[in-house]
């Protein structure tokens, strides 16, 4: 997003909002920009642009403090696929390292991608067990940030009666 013009960011977010409203009936207020752009402080001027545009659209930018690395590890392409046990061990090391270097009970937001099969089937169940064993409560982003539940969504309505099967700009 840091390389996009403000108008293009607005257009893309508007298309996303339309799709979410039609499919789910809601538009969330929280936005985790791709690659953390706009939230990670890597390029201050470009980050500010993303923050300003998303803020003007009513979004709260969220980011993570546990980068699971699943996007680089959970690869189903055979030459790069690592065994399940190795994938789980790498993920466990990342989570344990981050959690252990923070004060006990400190809040965490983990970055995981639900488009990776083993992240969903192998890593997520372990993360849930580990978090509960350590006394953490898994909550929606808004609750984690202490926001009033009435503010968690930009809009709440009913999904469309029928949803197109092909996405195309209007």
UniProtKB/TrEMBL annotation:
Keywords from the named record: Carbohydrate metabolism, Hydrolase, Metal-binding, Signal
Transmembrane region(s): none
InterPro entries: Glyco_hydro/deAcase_b/a-brl (IPR011330)
GO molecular-function term, one example from the UniProt record: hydrolase activity
UniProt-listed GO biological process terms: carbohydrate metabolic process
Cofactor: Co(2+)
Domain of life: Eukaryota
Protein name: Polysaccharide deacetylase
Organism, scientific name: Actinomortierella ambigua
